[in-house]
Design brief:
2 strands, single chain, two-stranded parallel sheet, mainly alpha
Length: 301
């Protein structure tokens, strides 16, 4: 299948997803497949509601991946997104009128790679977390823990969308993961929470650049007696982009840690909570799992 045929097949599949009028007021102007995701996923809707309740704002402005990573303020309650919904819908219906479909797709993909859901959750979680520590390395662990919580929610969204549609949404870059939680982990709310907690912890270890060969053993130590489930969750955690974990994330922290510290200090000014000092030894996490469970509770998971 050609690039254009594959892209058009994906676009048409998602455009055919029924959209509930009940959620129309939450839909972002021209954000691609937003109404479809609002109709499919409770955690997607909950994230939108919570972000709006804290005063979050959206701006329909052309936004490349590079600008989002380097210029957008991760701590400001403003999220840019590329308003491309009409363009994609038109292209899906009028491919024959396009002189170079491959170039059209390249243009759309260049400026349509940001998951608003992921960005919203960062802003929500800054408020849920205790104040940040001040030193560079401690703040790095804090930021990695926050990222692992956001990734945990990405996994939950993908699972709610389901294994049939989530790969298509992921290829269209509006979600970052695919849904493939094992049936046993989906059997009960408690079992699914444990699965997400393991995936979150494994993600944290990956972001902390723990030797990949040691991660499964670390997870089994912290979550004993659940080897089948932990293997599945750890395997899924490793789906995260190695480029992000080994290059983009460390470079971002090295460049912006002081700005991040100032922004978080301002956000938590006057808080009575004790700063969250995450243990140097990743096997020593305890309070962090309490916080992660609070996050799951707040998002209805």
């Amino acid at each position: 299948m050609t690039v254009s045929a594959s892209f058009l097949k994906d676009a048409r599949q998602l455009l055919a997803v029924p959209c509930s009028p009940r959620f129309a007021k939450l839909v972002l102007f021209e954000y691609v497949f937003d109404h479809q995701l609002l109709s499919l996923s409770g955690v997607y809707r909950e994230s939108r509601k919570q972000y709006l309740e804290l005063g979050g704002r959206f701006a329909p402005r052309i936004s490349s991946t590079m600008r989002s990573l380097s210029a957008q303020d991760l701590f400001a309650d403003d999220i840019d997104y590329t308003p491309a919904a009409t363009e994609i819908e038109w292209f899906a219906k009028n491919e024959a009128d396009v002189y170079d479909p491959t170039e059209e797709i390249a243009a759309l993909e260049r400026f349509n790679t940001i998951s608003v859901f992921h960005e919203q959750n960062h802003r929500i979680l800054w408020r849920l977390l205790p104040p940040a520590p001040k030193t560079e390395r401690e703040l790095g662990r804090y930021l990695n823990f926050a990222e692992s919580l956001v990734v945990m929610l990405d996994l939950a969204l993908a699972d709610q969308v389901g294994p049939k549609l989530s790969p298509t949404f992921e290829r269209m870059k509006v979600i970052y993961r695919t849904g493939r939680a094992p049936k046993a982990s989906l059997a009960t709310k408690s079992a699914y929470r444990d699965y997400l907690l393991v995936a979150m912890y494994a993600t944290y270890l990956i972001l902390e650049l723990v030797n990949p060969d040691d991660i499964q053993n670390a997870v089994d130590y912290v979550f004993p007696g659940q080897k089948k489930m932990t293997r599945e969750a750890v395997t899924r955690a490793f789906d995260i982009s190695e480029l992000f974990t080994r290059i983009t994330n460390p470079q971002w922290q090295e460049r912006y840690w002081k700005d991040a510290g100032r922004a978080l200090a301002k956000m938590h000014r006057g808080s009575a909570m004790t700063p969250l000092h995450i243990p140097k030894d990743p096997l020593g996490l305890e309070e962090e799992f309490v916080i992660a469970r609070q996050v799951l509770e707040q998002f209805g998971l």
